[in-house]
Amino acid sequence: MSARQGKRPLGVAVLGTAFMGRAHSSAWRNVGAVFRDVPELRMRVLCGSDAERTRAAADALGWHEASTDWRSVVERDDIDVVDVCTPGHLHSEMAIAALEAGKHVLVEKPLALDAAEAERMVAAAERAPGVAMLGFNYRRVPALALARRLIADGRIGEVRSIRAAYLQDWLVDPEAPMTWRLRAETAGSGALGDLGSHVIDQVRSLTGDEVVGVRGALRTFQPERPGPAGPERVSVDDAAWALLDLARGATASIEVSRVAAGRKNALELEVHGTDGAIAFDLERLNELTVTSGRDGWPARVLVTEAHHPLLEGWWPPGHVLGWDSTFTAQAADLLRAIAAGAPPEPSFADGLAVQRVLDAVGRSDAAGGARIDLSETDQGHDDRAETTR
Amino acid sequence: MSARQGKRPLGVAVLGTAFMGRAHSSAWRNVGAVFRDVPELRMRVLCGSDAERTRAAADALGWHEASTDWRSVVERDDIDVVDVCTPGHLHSEMAIAALEAGKHVLVEKPLALDAAEAERMVAAAERAPGVAMLGFNYRRVPALALARRLIADGRIGEVRSIRAAYLQDWLVDPEAPMTWRLRAETAGSGALGDLGSHVIDQVRSLTGDEVVGVRGALRTFQPERPGPAGPERVSVDDAAWALLDLARGATASIEVSRVAAGRKNALELEVHGTDGAIAFDLERLNELTVTSGRDGWPARVLVTEAHHPLLEGWWPPGHVLGWDSTFTAQAADLLRAIAAGAPPEPSFADGLAVQRVLDAVGRSDAAGGARIDLSETDQGHDDRAETTR
Amino acid sequence: MSARQGKRPLGVAVLGTAFMGRAHSSAWRNVGAVFRDVPELRMRVLCGSDAERTRAAADALGWHEASTDWRSVVERDDIDVVDVCTPGHLHSEMAIAALEAGKHVLVEKPLALDAAEAERMVAAAERAPGVAMLGFNYRRVPALALARRLIADGRIGEVRSIRAAYLQDWLVDPEAPMTWRLRAETAGSGALGDLGSHVIDQVRSLTGDEVVGVRGALRTFQPERPGPAGPERVSVDDAAWALLDLARGATASIEVSRVAAGRKNALELEVHGTDGAIAFDLERLNELTVTSGRDGWPARVLVTEAHHPLLEGWWPPGHVLGWDSTFTAQAADLLRAIAAGAPPEPSFADGLAVQRVLDAVGRSDAAGGARIDLSETDQGHDDRAETTR
Amino acid sequence: MSARQGKRPLGVAVLGTAFMGRAHSSAWRNVGAVFRDVPELRMRVLCGSDAERTRAAADALGWHEASTDWRSVVERDDIDVVDVCTPGHLHSEMAIAALEAGKHVLVEKPLALDAAEAERMVAAAERAPGVAMLGFNYRRVPALALARRLIADGRIGEVRSIRAAYLQDWLVDPEAPMTWRLRAETAGSGALGDLGSHVIDQVRSLTGDEVVGVRGALRTFQPERPGPAGPERVSVDDAAWALLDLARGATASIEVSRVAAGRKNALELEVHGTDGAIAFDLERLNELTVTSGRDGWPARVLVTEAHHPLLEGWWPPGHVLGWDSTFTAQAADLLRAIAAGAPPEPSFADGLAVQRVLDAVGRSDAAGGARIDLSETDQGHDDRAETTR
Lengths: 389, 389, 389, 389
Hints:
Four copies of one chain form a homotetramer.
Chain A: E1 10-15, H1 19-34, E2 41-47, H2 51-61, E3 65-67, H3 70-73, E4 81-84, H4 91-100, E5 104-108, H5 115-127, E6 132-135, H6 142-152, E7 159-167, H7 184-187, H8 191-207, E8 211-219, E9 224-227, E10 230-233, E11 239-246, E12 251-257, E13 266-273, E14 276-281, E15 287-292, E16 299-302, H9 325-340, H10 348-366, E17 372-373, H11 375-388
Parallel strand pairs in A: 1-2, 1-4, 2-3, 4-5, 5-6, 7-12
Antiparallel strand pairs in A: 7-13, 8-11, 8-17, 9-10, 11-12, 13-14, 14-15, 15-16
Helix pairs in contact in A: 1-9, 4-5, 5-10, 6-8, 8-10
């Protein structure tokens, strides 16, 4: 892994200055203060498309330099880590370029707009010397990390069902205006890709299992929305549903929506096993509800104890974390993977697996709900992985 | 409607002495004390299969007589109302006999074991002079009645999605023993019919809309359970999922399970509209969460005010009701329907509509999840109703 | 105990036809159906002040007779149990008359208007052959009975503090009209006696301990309210606070209010011990939150299991009980005490103990908050009890 | 206000490297990225007592320099803001020195160990050119800032009562070891000063009113705790209670405890007015429960909207903030006060007012609960303020 040179601080560049660029900048600015065991870094360059705004953002967010030329930035010798926070259709080109330049790469989710593009990115990552990580930040919610640990430790027995929803309300108003997020050509899909990708990643992360069968349905409740020059057609889903079969026998039901009044950012997960259950709601990020045993009762755990996952560097018990803390912990794990030369988690391959499920939901919907079998696809991936390593 | 003779108190008979017989007896014992506007009644006969146990139950539950001969009871002149609380496979014969004897009939849900049997019962009800009511008692949960009123009044706008679950835990233990409820020949289906029927009735009741398309899936997690002479095969579902298309464009997602650790009797309903939302959990029977407007926040309404539906006869605000109160209110509505000569709600036709959806879930599962179109079936029902009335 | 004659069913009379008369009638009507182990009873007479209304109430509520002459009723040979549900200023006279006539007596709380009157009632109960029980119905909330059991079993260690509130909102409106409940001469006190008596009874019941010191404060936020002929002076408290020292070292803080917007009937109790905690809210009557151990997390227990206290006669797990169920269980316990010839719980002496605390709150407030020592008073009571038995 | 020189970035020094030093460092590191309207700053010096540890902390937390000589630091020309995060007994000396050196000063709460010391600090602040701010960080919880705004706007009418608690569990174990926090000479008081100061500040902040009467009680449940050489005497309170009279007629009840099992950091506030109520729990920092109007129901507001207070610089709606965000917002408000030359909030005078209430709780307890009148004291303060300005 040639990207890391001795004890020199790692040089970081972030591509993208919008919402995600801000969130990732916060992570780079704080990771060393929270987690003392990570390699030293320098916030070298923030890249954006508009010179003036990028300069202002770089100043405010703590970057040494601003740039509008991402291609030269990913080639620079003093850059070791390239963090891709641009819109989804730019992920592939930027990430592959950075990987080919020998850099470590973090890509904000979703990995790509479709499975074919994701496959190319996985292939690039397999060839490259750098660490390639995908930014499903909710894996770094301490409560969800605790849930994963409890499940892995068998604390709720064998998982039988997962009930998941990700509900938001920002499109509930029929007069909410048209945006690029509502066109298939620019966004790929709607609630499915934006929210469903997080849900599917959590299903895989919490269970450690693979999706082998998919039945899905998509709905666009509001077929037109006001554009600057009159009504425009919405070409992505407002809401989506899926039923997933997992390889070891569990079933997951999923609902995602951008038209759920009263729900701002409600990623709700409920996992039932043969010997207990866990439940979570992102709007109460610091809490996990744990039912231990067949006769147990749901206990509300405030996941802020030092012995809980991801919490060693924060505050004393009871002092809750915010949404941005997940990016800080994600950055720490990337830095640790770089230091250890170990594969990061989630990987590009995880992103591809999620993308395949998303694609299958769309195909199932087009086929009237019929089940799409993914078991062959996954075996194929495993086979290829074996031969190329 | 000849079954009602002047001002003589109505004579009531309950068929069945088990759980439901007890619950309905409680209703008949208390309805006159709570609701002052209902016709007077007499608790005349409790029918059961075992003479001694029926006698003891009749004494304890407030009945004048006990009987083991239901056929003669439903013929008696002093019986005006026959309340069928026996296991499902006896509903059809008893209800039809009572209707043909000119009685008013209340049948505990489910109406029948399949749609064909339900159709015969609907036909019998259409021919008979008496009132024929189906016992979906959750329609008489004040919070759900309030939800229905709010939705009907347009308080959450046009309904777009319903998210429903009915989760119990009594089969979570793989060693839970075999019972008749786990065999298709005696129970019809598993969680689907037992729990799903309530959920589907609520979807119809809350929206006032019909199900026109069904995609479904069934799962039996525990294929064998211990019987007296060794392992026996479970032939019904432990859990079921369905996605329902409603005629006016809403989508309902449903999950029912008897293997959900930590959930005792959790009927959860969440309805999202273009202008708000409501949410309910049967474990908190006296509460309704109401989100008013697109920018509203979920408010917890304690549904115990005198102006809330079904509450005029109970206690002052803040004094919560129990599960059994739903049967008392159901009995009151039956008595009022009898007094008014008006069709009761829910009717046998409602039971048939639910049964058709349940059947369609099973057919969709058998077909790999493909969508079953019920729009023709429903039109057929409406046509027949028009020609026979 | 002469009041019980062989196996003849016990004849019951209720005095009072208003809210409490209705609630107690419900209990007598249902107790035999729910609890199979209790002596048989007959609902003989309902007594009220208005002949016509009492007749109508008796018919509706299931009584054989109506009467407006309570004095003759409590003398009747066919009456074994007299249940006093009249306003507080009538309790003493009626209860003492019934006790002197050899009857078993149940008195709705509060026992009396002041400690002196309560002392006379305790003395009458000690002299009389019948069972004398006080109606603090919340002792029969299953969740509170479970809390008491858990605490008695040492499951939360040694109790250190109790945090209690009983909050209602019916006087929050400054224009809410004057009633007898807002005059000291008819009601004794305001929120203190009405709500505080329940809270103090729970403190004693949950801990099994005695109050030995009291600091209190009373507030009347709305000094005048509209009467029929203009503004009238409110002479009782709208809200009260107290800090109680218990004999074994715990401290209880109490707040009661009738002007707490948004709270309908919120009796909230929280008990902290050296090894855990419990919490309860009457608006969620079927739930108890239990924290087990110093490192435990609050678990939400749905108190509807057959093995939970008071639940053997009701419904399967998860089928919640209503507020009225507490009166049914109270009636059962009275009947059991009669059958066993055992002292009931709570006794008149419990009522007196509560009254002494209530009185002390008023005295402390008058003294600017200074601590009132009740340890001598309680010893006095114990001494007298010893000498008179 | 001579401490601010033109457009040069403000030089900041933090005194203290422990828990609060870390939290305040986080604020200085992030304030410019979140709030774009604040003056530029430089994180110049971190001061601690141990050279090596201070050096390491400075590196990790983003400081240019480390120092063990706070006296020289507060004199440096390139330091404009001195942020005192040391233990309470050092606050007075450090803050006064910095103020006398012409610096802007932020002091972490509590202002001082007693009212006399606090008075000297207030006097120094009144004499000095710099801005003097006190660090009650919970004033910058968005939900509490929203509560304050709603109350100030009359949205719940006239405030009548405040019910507040701050419950923690870290001393619930009787074997928890002795520390300096449990000795009066080093800590002043126990739960009272540590937790009660926050509660009292909130009472004043939310109502905008002054405390004019105090009744209090203190308890030490565990009089001895294990020290290195055997049991040692605990000389501060484990728990405290107070009843506060506010000048405009409201009453506040307060309970604070470090021995409340199951509660990690539960600052619970409930404010009832003539026309509504608000409720808050710090363990759910991003939520405010709002009851609007006399007939309103408690609505759960997720306080993450851009139009909510303090939220303009953070994330989109539904993306929750953590505890540390309060320090970032506090730093922003200090910087804005410096830029505007305006008095900051809370001021040292606010800290003195809180300290006087804390002292009065202790005096009331010593006097058996008798009410301590603070109205004269407060008038005195106002008079002095008038004469010295």
